[in-house]
Amino acid sequence: MEIFRSLALVVFICAATFSWAQKNDLGVWYMYFGNNKISKKWNWHNEVQYRNFDAVGDLEQLLIRTGIGYDLSENNNNVLLGYGFILSQPYVNGEKKENIEHRIFQQFITKQKFGRFNLQHRYRLEERFLQDDFRMRFRYMLGLNIPISQKEMLPKTWYASVYNEIFLHFDSSVFDRNRVYGALGYVINKNLRIEAGYMNQLQESRNRGQIQIGFYNNIPFNKN
Question: Looking at the record's lineage, which domain of life comes first (predicted)?
Answer without folding.
Answer: Bacteria
